[in-house]
Amino acid sequence: MSEIAVVTDRSDWQSGFEQRILTAYRAAGCSEPLARALLERALKGVEEWTVATDGTGWIAVGVTADNGTSVGRIHDLTVPDGRAWAEQWCADQGARQVEVRLVGGPGQFADYPVRGQNRMRLAAEQPGLPPGLAVRRLTEQEYPAWYAGETAAYVADIVRAGALTPEQARQKSDRDFERYLPQGYLTPGHAFYAMEAGGEVIGTGWVNHGFLPGVTFGFSLEVHPEHRGKGYGRAAMAVGEWATRQGGDEAMMFNVFGGNEVAMRLYDATGFAVLDEYRSIDLP
């Protein structure tokens, strides 16, 4: 293998990288506006990335501070057996973790644990609510208790995924909820639901319409623990599709944390394909 060297002229790499990302998102069923919006997110901070080549492929890496930890990020890797170089570069910059965002399969990173996945599918054109299930808007009086439960569940999901310590997870939760719900219950574009069966609230939902072009993001479609195992998980997914069309969007997207095998199996069964995923390891 030729020696890997950092390059200063990145034009050839970037044009190829952008085309590969767009092709992968199109293959995953994304519309052209959505594929380009996802590409824009993938290119965030690209000016600060380091790009290297061995003449046969490319490596793009960077380091950022994340929750008080220096995290290396492998943004692109097409050099055969180039992972060791990328990991060593991150370690040399002081990184204690290495993360990779993958579109189109794990490739050289199959042994990295999955920390999170974005899943997506087109909603049915005229989705109906499941028989026996009623959906209503969550009331403003119910919101504080819902919020407390959601933040606690979010912290638990992050810790179970192995991505952060409990204290780091709490800090991330505070930042994320403040960012996504700056006006709380009245934040524009967000809708909160209660799902009822037999006159009893069996779960709740939180969606963000127009999160990306044509996409409603399901931040949470939660069935309460005492009502799980009764088929309501699939019903909650149907509610998500219904809410997507109610908000004028055509596709529903979710995030699932690594380690949540129950949710992953449910998403597989209900046709939510992996759009992209995050994997990471700790460095020695």
Automatic annotation (TrEMBL):
Molecular functions (GO terms) = acyltransferase activity, transferring groups other than amino-acyl groups
The N-acetyltransferase domain extends over 133-284
Q: What is this protein called?
A: N-acetyltransferase domain-containing protein
Species of origin: Kitasatospora sp. CMC57
